[in-house]
Each structure stands twice: as C-alpha cells, then as structure tokens.
Specification:
Order of helices and strands: HHHHHEEEEEEEHHEEEEEEEEEE
Number of helices: 7
Helix content: 25-40%
Number of strands: 17
Shape: globular
Strand order of the largest sheet: 1-5-6
Bound molecules: 2-amino-4-trifluoromethylsulfanyl-butyric acid, cobalt (II) ion
Strand content: 15-25%
Largest sheet: 3 strands, antiparallel
Length: 297
C-alpha cells in the first residue's frame, strides 16, 4: 500500500475563518484541542465542559502557581503572624505572576485567599485581628486565574506543635482526599469518590460536611458537576477522560452540622469541634487521574 503524502500546502493558505492569518497559525491550532464525540453529550446533559489538551496545559500552569503559593504560605506560617499576612503574601505573589485571585470580590468575598482556623470549616476571611497561635491548625485555600484558567487547591497546616486532636483531624482529612482521588477512574462514578471518603472518615469516628462539595473547575471557578464527599458507589455521573474537578473533603472531629457566622462567609462546626480540609484539582485521564495542582499528600 502506498502511503499518501501529507498535503502541506493547506497549512500555509489564509485561514478560511477570515482572520487573515495562515491556517496553521489560526484554526488549525484548535484541532490540537479537539474534544471527543461524547463531549457534546456531557455538555448538554450535565453542563460539564470537558477539557482538551491545551486547556489542560493551561490549568496545569495555574495549578503549579497554586502549589508554589501554598509552599510559600507554609514557610510563613508560625505563631504570631496574622491571617492578613497570609492574604498579603498570596495576593502579591498571584499578581506578580500576572494572575488574578479568583476569590477577591467573588460574590462579595473581600480577600484573595481563605484562611480557616480550628473550628472554621471553610471561607474564613483573613484579618489583621486574627493572630495564629501555637497548636492551631489552619487551612489555606488558593485559587489563581492564570491566562483565564482557574486552579483550586488547599492544605491544612499545623501552627507550631500540634496536639493529639489536631493531628487526628488533619491526618484524617489528608487521607480522606488521598482515598477520594484513588477512587477516580474513567468508567467509575462520581459516587465512588464520596463513598471512599465517607467510609474512611466515619470509620475513623469523624464526620463529613454535606453543605460544601467539590466542583468542576478550569474555565470558571465553580462548574458542573458537584462532587459530594459522601455517597454511594456507582451512583451519579460516569467519570470520563477530560473531566477536571476538585475533591476537597471537609472532615470534622465531632458532628457534621455547621453554621455560618454573621459575616455571611465563615462556616464553623456547630459543636465547635476541630475540622480540617485538603483540596486538589484533578483531571480524569485514560487510565485514572492526574493532579493538576501537584502536591504530595
Ligand atoms: N476555594 C473555595 C473552593 O474550594 C471557594 C472559595 S469562594 C470564596 O471552592 F468566595 F469564599 F472565596
Ligand atoms: Co478551594
Ligand atoms: Co474548590
């Protein structure tokens, strides 16, 4: 059989879209980002926007910046600093990298990062009045927009020397995210993730927050689908290659119930118990998953 010679001439002709650029510099490039046939079904049926190779590269870059900022934050955290100091560091480093802090002015949220201490489940607002003290635990949640693409990740850090309860809840939350991620594979279901997390966390005598869930991310801050951190195996949408979402279990040492403080953001455990969270942005791949905010748990 004769191999057909590649027709290279078409690459250099003016693009038919009318941009005036050569085809190879214009619409041909978008072919690299082509999505599979089932992408339309996921969009119309579930409002899930699958990501192509170029999208994934861009989200990864935002993800690398996120991890870099989390690492810098870890260096800064010690007894005596304020959560405003963390906001300043995160804000400045995001701007320095020509990115935008997604949380700033998001639905009225006033800061560039969320800092959630001890019984604060999530969305703690940085303040110069809040001073970290030895034995605290603090979740720092960072979400830059780089070249229009969002990444979202968080970690809980120890301030000084942790007590036994702090160690218990932080290590349980860390393992919960690990197990949630390990449940991700194409052909699996959204419910597999929540099931793995809930089984483990409740088995450890802890509880799983229901009101806040993981979410699609990348083109926007919060996209479809929702990723609950509780649930049943094989339930919910089937996971497929090209889905990008967060898993971000919030695990309480006591009961699962919460309340929102009068600032309308800060979510705290109703029983005042310690709570911890880790979050990563991940991609469903051909064989499993990949971290787009690549830090080891
Ligand atoms: N980063 C959070 C998440 O994981 C969302 C924070 S929204 C804010 O989804 F407005 F509170 F900052
Ligand atoms: Co987040
Ligand atoms: Co998130």
């Amino acid at each position: 059989m004769i191999k057909k010679k590649a027709d290279k001439t078409g690459r250099n002709v003016p693009c038919s879209c009318g941009s005036g650029k050569k085809f190879k510099k214009c619409c041909m490039i978008s072919k690299k980002n082509q999505l599979p046939d089932y992408a339309n079904k996921y969009l119309s049926r579930y409002q899930i926007r699958l990501k192509g190779p170029e999208d994934i590269r861009a989200i990864k870059r935002a993800g690398q910046l996120t991890v870099e900022i989390l690492d810098m934050t870890e260096e800064l955290i010690k007894p005596g600093i304020t959560t405003q100091d963390i906001d300043k560091l995160v804000h400045e480093h995001i701007l320095k990298n020509k990115a935008i802090p997604a949380t700033l002015n998001y639905k009225g949220y006033p800061k560039s990062v969320c800092t959630s201490i001890n019984e604060v489940i999530c969305h703690g607002i940085p303040s110069s009045d809040v001073v970290l003290k030895d034995g605290d635990i603090i979740n720092v949640d960072v979400t830059p927009i780089l070249n229009g693409y969002f990444a979202d990740a968080s970690k809980t850090f120890y301030v000084g020397e942790p007590g036994d309860d702090a160690k218990k809840i932080v290590e349980t939350a860390r393992n919960a995210l690990k197990l949630g991620m390990d449940a991700v594979k194409p052909g699996g279901a959204v419910g597999d993730i929540g099931h793995a997390i809930q089984q483990y966390a409740e088995g450890e005598g802890c509880s799983v927050v229901r009101e806040f869930v993981g979410h699609g991310v990348g083109f926007e801050f919060h996209e479809s689908p929702q990723i609950p951190h509780y649930g049943r195996r094989r339930e919910g949408i089937t996971l497929i290659q090209g889905m990008v979402f967060t898993i971000e279990p919030m695990i309480n040492l006591g009961k699962k119930e919460l309340k929102i403080l009068s600032d309308k953001w800060t979510a705290v455990t109703l029983d005042g118990s310690l709570t911890a969270q880790f979050e990563q942005t991940i991609l469903v791949t051909e064989n499993g998953f990949e971290r787009l905010t690549p830090f080891e748990l």
